[in-house]
Amino acid sequence: MTVAHAAGSPLEQFKITRLVEMEVGGLDVSFTxxxxxxxxxxxxxxxxxLFAMRKGSMxxxxxxxxxxxxxxxxxxxxxxxxxxxxxxxxPFIFSLFMFILFANILGLIPYAxxxxxxxxxxxAMAITVFLGVTVIGLIKHRMRFFTLFxxxxxxxxxxxxxxxxxxxxxxARPITLxxxxxxxxxxxHTLLKVFGGFVVALxxxxxxxxxxxxxxxxxxxxxxxxxxxxxxxxxxxxxxxALHLHH
Length: 247
Description:
By secondary structure, the protein is mostly helical. The chain contains seven helices and four strands.
């Protein structure tokens, strides 16, 4: 029996379960608990924003204020890091930020499933960003896009080495982007599960670990927001490179 399947294992919460088995062309496309929670995340975002903005009051209430602050927060992020040229890509970055944020926060609900704790999900988002900004850069600059790998003013003697380093750094972007989010979510949820087990096992003596869990839960809420922010702002920076070829 593997650790992941052991009773009470902190890794058991990450297990993907097939709910509706389907196969297309020999490929397993079953509807899983991960897919269910992705749908839940999208519905939660849509309902939250629509409900918050249903009145569109000149003097916003709490819900409308949060929705408008979210919009302004991402809009300012795009404007500060990409400039006016990034306005066309705001809907994508806003959707990306909200999806990751809601997925992270909903995953903190007991017995919920955290889709961002799986590398396949985070890598899918990261590779979409990577391919998207690369295509945008190639369309906008054509062959000049490759000057991104050769910073200006570099002596030609060391230029080949720098090109290789810059190229590897560029190709590593989807890996580092996906690993950062995946690792933080998985590590945080594993810690919560471990200390939760201590509370149950210790009974009355578990007051100490319970207090620690509350503090850890607050920290995880902060990490949930921070990881969504980091993913979105790095997307802006990559987009800025593609649009302006800044070094």
